[in-house]
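Methods — Computational structure assignment.
A single polypeptide chain was analysed. Its primary sequence is given first, followed by the predicted tertiary structure written as structure tokens.
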Amino acid sequence: MFGKENLKAKEEVKEQSKPTGKVKPEKKGLTQREAVYLRVIELLKENNIKVENGKSTRDYFTSEHLNALTERVMSDFKSGKTKFFDTPLNTEKLQDDEKLKKYVIGLCSNWFRKDPRLNGKSA
């Protein structure tokens, strides 16, 4: 019985996560990857941080830098500057700052690891 309930819950979450076909904002908004990249570069420039070739930009970020990055990316989502699929879960995130913050922290961490422009590795 526990297995069936768990499977049902997973299916409900999966269904809520499906895009409805609409993208917020229109297609001219930034991708999430580009939003993180641009905000990282912006913070590096503002703080006169020079990144050595082959080093991850994450290595140069203090907790204050990470907090500023999170706030800026959150602002991009709220303003519609960054694309966010129109799903019930994403709508919920946009209405709840704590949920959006948790999402953005994970998003930034993901792109620090995966984006070769940020992780210091060649593509």
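Note: The radius of gyration is 17 Å.
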